[in-house]
Write a structure and sequence with these properties.
heterodimer; A: alpha/beta; Rossmann fold; 6-stranded mixed beta sheet; B: mainly alpha; MetI-like fold; elongated
Chain lengths: 284, 278
């Protein structure tokens, strides 16, 4: 175990700047992710989850800026770095997987060229050992024939396969921290389960710290150790997953959980008769 | 490849490509294809009907019409290639810089574009030639300078949409530099679109060149250029209609031939369409 958490964020504030002044979007978010831990960040759409992730990486869109706060990767302050210096951390100190894997690959290039680009972006050799690394990374995410995958174009693969490829790409340079922004949105239930199992096993095998962003409570329940609930740009409640889910302190968290349980119950009562007693158990 | 096309559509494409191929061959091999010097004046043989030695006849100065048409292809195609190359370089440089940098750089470059867009192109080209003087090189410069702004705007718009793509974000997340992203992920789709546009515009440029030459502002008379030939033949339109017909036909055929492959090109250059069709 390293002495420093792999990610520490203190009082991160992000605001949008327009012709009529600034609008705060993320208000004082503090987070800490230790190695071999999964921290879940939940909240409704638009509450600032994804912005927090982009803010950590310094990749905010043009009209948004970090107005306050510090970001440390493995104890190194990165919020003061110039974009080009920060770029070297992306992929190496921290990797990120995005939602909607279908759109995350350039249709003009094969998967192999995507791997090559990630390696070349960090000034590493793209011959010899490169192919072996790509192969073993693909093998690790469950592809039995990595060579065939490297020759495919992105649109020849399914969403679930592409998400696994994205995870393999993220792990290529062996970063200690993985930020997963809604990794299972837009995927069907089987693909979701595969991705979540994969993340769980990678975390165990590599001692990866994971910041898991989602609005799906069942994903958090399945994977995360700690959870932080975000609302309107601020974290309103945090704690171990079991404690927060069993006894939420905030009424907002309680209503999120209630809504989830109500949907789940409706699903069971309406579909239970059709699907038999096994229905609804796979998300528990 | 364009397998969804009807036989007619496919036949047109083949015909267009044959015409373009023939024109390109004529342009490249002009000294061997043309039996006579296109500028050799022989007043004793002026306005000859088609016959031995000159199978399309001769013009009012006794020059071989067929030879002049062949050399005309060289001038027309060479001019248009130069114009398109110049436009692509200019518009890619300006459009990519504006779209990718954004902010005041974008604003400044786009206002410069607007300045060019406010004038009718033909008038502006005539004005530029008035300043630069007539001649082949000046025609190329004038037409390129009056057309690049459209392309620059399109390049900028494409870059703006492409840089919002998730795969660009994914590349940045992986630590890829901005320059590499521009070259690897943004430029290829922009080039594919530009190739289509340029093919569709080649005919238009060619009309510009011939139009300016016809007005006496472009390529100058002894040079065999189709617009120049039409201008020369104006006074014989009733007695020797062939003199005006053939260069006109050449312009017509060339413009038509370059207009057809544009949308076929799109099918070929789009990787998604390509492999799904295979």
């Amino acid at each position: 175990m390293t002495a420093h958490p792999v990610l520490r964020v203190t009082e991160l504030e992000i605001a949008a700047f327009g012709p009529h002044g600034s609008l705060p979007l993320v208000r004082g978010v503090s987070l800490s992710v230790l190695a071999n831990r999964v921290v879940g960040l939940i909240g409704e759409s638009g509450c600032g989850k994804s912005l927090t992730c982009l803010g950590i990486l310094g990749l905010l869109p043009g009209n948004l800026r970090r107005t306050r706060g510090e970001v440390f990767l493995r104890g190194e302050a990165v919020h003061t770095l110039a974009p080009d210096a920060m770029r070297r951390h992306c992929g190496r100190s921290v990797a990120m997987i995005l939602q909607n894997p279908m759109s995350c690959f350039d249709a003009v290039h094969t998967i192999g060229r995507h791997f090559r680009e990630t390696v070349a972006s960090h000034g590493l050799q793209t011959n010899g050992g490169f192919r072996d690394r790509a192969r073993s990374a693909l093998h690790e995410v469950g592809f039995d024939e990595p060579d065939a995958i490297l020759g495919l174009y992105p649109f020849q693969m399914s969403g679930g396969m592409l998400q696994r490829v994205m995870i393999a790409l993220a792990l290529l340079l062996e970063p200690p921290l993985l930020i997963a922004d809604e990794p299972t949105t837009d995927l069907d239930a089987v693909a979701q389960a595969t991705i979540l199992d994969l993340l769980a096993s990678l975390r165990k095998r590599r001692g990866l710290g994971v910041l898991l962003v989602t609005h799906d409570l069942s994903v958090i329940a399945r994977l995360a150790d700690e959870v932080a609930v975000m609302r309107e740009g601020a974290i309103i409640e945090r704690g171990p997953v079991t404690a927060v889910f069993a006894a939420p302190r905030e009424s907002y968290t309680a209503s999120l959980l209630r809504a989830h349980h109500r949907l789940d119950r409706d699903y069971r009562t309406h579909l239970g008769a059709w699907l038999g007693p096994a229905a609804g158990t796979e998300s528990a | 490849m364009s397998c969804e096309g009807s036989p007619v559509r496919r036949g047109l494409l083949v015909a267009a490509l044959v015409v373009i191929g023939a024109l390109a061959a004529a342009a490249l091999l002009a000294p061997w294809v043309a039996p006579h010097d296109p500028t050799a004046i022989d007043l004793a043989r002026k306005l000859q009907p088609p016959g031995k030695g000159c199978f399309l006849g001769t013009d009012h100065l006794g020059r071989d019409l067929w030879s002049r048409l062949v050399y005309g292809a060289r001038v027309s195609i060479g001019t248009v290639v130069a114009i398109v190359a110049l436009i692509l370089v200019l518009s890619l440089a300006v459009g990519c810089t504006a779209g990718y940098a954004g902010g005041w750089v974008d604003a400044l470059l786009m206002r410069a574009c607007d300045l060019f867009l406010t004038f009718p192109t033909f008038i502006l080209a005539m004005f530029l030639i008035g300043v630069l003087g007539t001649g082949l090189v000046n025609v190329i410069l004038a037409i390129a300078f009056t057309h690049w702004a459209w392309y620059a705007r399109i390049v900028r718009a494409l870059v703006l949409t492409l840089k919002q793509r998730n795969y660009v974000l994914a590349a940045r997340v992986a630590g890829t530099s901005r320059g590499r992203i521009l070259i690897r992920h943004i430029l290829p789709p922009v080039l594919a679109q530009l190739a289509i546009l340029a093919t569709l515009d080649i005919g238009h440029m060619m009309l510009h060149v011939s139009g300016l030459s016809f007005l006496g502002l472009g390529v100058q008379p002894p040079t065999p250029e189709w617009g120049v030939m039409i201008n020369d033949a104006r006074q014989y339109v009733w007695t020797q209609p062939a003199l005006i017909l053939y260069p006109g036909l050449m312009i017509f055929l060339t413009v038509m031939a370059f207009n057809i492959p544009g949308d076929h090109l799109r099918d070929v250059l789009d990787p998604v369409v390509r492999t799904q069709g295979a």
